[in-house]
Amino acid sequence: MSFRILIIEDEAEIADFVIRGLREEGFTVEHAADGDAGWQALRSGPWDAVLLDWSLPGMDGLALLRRFRQAGDDTPVLFLTARDAVSDRVRGLENGADDYLCKPFAFTELLARVRVIARRRDAERSMLLSYQDICVDLASHRAERAGTQLRLTAKEEALLILFLRHAGEVLTRTRIYEQIWDDRYDGLSNALEVHVMSLRRELEKHGPRVIHTMRGRGYVFGDRSLHTAQAGV
User: Fold this and answer.
1) Helix (H/G/I), strand (E/B), else coil: 121
2) Sequence spans of domains, the chain
3) Which of 36, 46, 179, 230 gives 20 to 30 Å between its CA and that of 58?
4) DSSP secondary structure of 24-64
5) pLDDT on residue 225
6) Domain at 4-126, CATH homologous superfamily
7) Are strands 170-171 and 218-221 parallel, antiparallel or unpaired?
């Protein structure tokens, strides 16, 4: 997966220097030359990182950053600016910047900071499981569908995590039961069916069915159209 960077910088020489360097390192880079174009570009994301100049024509970088954070976006933002006063660095960080690099800067330092952001984003992604509009943050144990938090028991969350990790696969009742309950499936307990039914109800409050019963086989998680020929309900 490519790492997408947006640079919002009005000085063409600096922008070209940074863009060429980052692209040579394998990053995908787009550019906006003023605050208003920058806001439109931010809205066209998602981005993995934003390199933001403070002094921009139109909306300045600090105002742009405030608006970006107020919109609920937590994409890492690195200020690239000639403002080197401690008070300016503090203002930038307090308003949502993740890092601050003063001009003039060496490209090697910028690259090192971008790579730190990239490593952090990779770590965050490894803690997030998702399928279409359903996701589970493994660090916070927060499950969502269509942006709404799901109310799940511990067993239901464990089931959802298992389904997300094996989307599109037919999972037998025995395999699910032994992984979730850490016990042998005796073929008599209906605990699995009860928890699947409850998980389905919670998911289906916010979207179409994604857990399908496969007659005589188990369950499959995903788009019903892919499993219509085999699905029971």
Assistant:
1) helix
2) 4-126, 129-226
3) 46
4) HTT-EEEEE-SHHHHHHHHHT---SEEEEESS-SSS-HHHH
5) 56
6) Response regulator (3.40.50.2300)
7) antiparallel
Cα gap 152→160, rounded to integer Å: 9
d(CA 29, CA 21): 10
Helix (H, G, I), strand (E, B) or coil at 153: coil
Residue 211 and residue 193 in contact, taking contact as beta carbons nearer than 8 Å: no
Say if residues 192 and 174 touch (Cβ distance below 8 Å): no
**Residue the block writes with tokens 């790579």:** 115
Q: What is the model's pTM?
A: 0.58
Q: Cα separation of 165 and 69, whole Å? A: 31
Q: Which helix (H) or strand (E) holds 134?
A: strand 134-137
Top-tier CATH class for 129-226: mainly alpha
Amino acid at 231: A
- Residue 144 in this model has a pLDDT that exceeds 50: yes
DSSP-H helix ranges across the chain: 12-24, 35-43, 61-70, 86-94, 107-126, 154-165, 173-180, 191-204
pLDDT digits (tens, 9 = 90+) for 59-76: 999 999 999 999 888 899
Is the separation of the CB atoms in 97 and 79 below 8 Å?
A: yes
Distance (Å, whole) CA 227 – CA 212: 8
The edge-to-edge listing of strands for the beta sheet with 128-131 is 128-131, 134-137, 142-145, 148-149
* Selection from 197, 211, 215 nearest residue 169 by Cα: 211
Measuring CA to CA, which residue among 125, 129, 60, 126 is closest to residue 91? 60
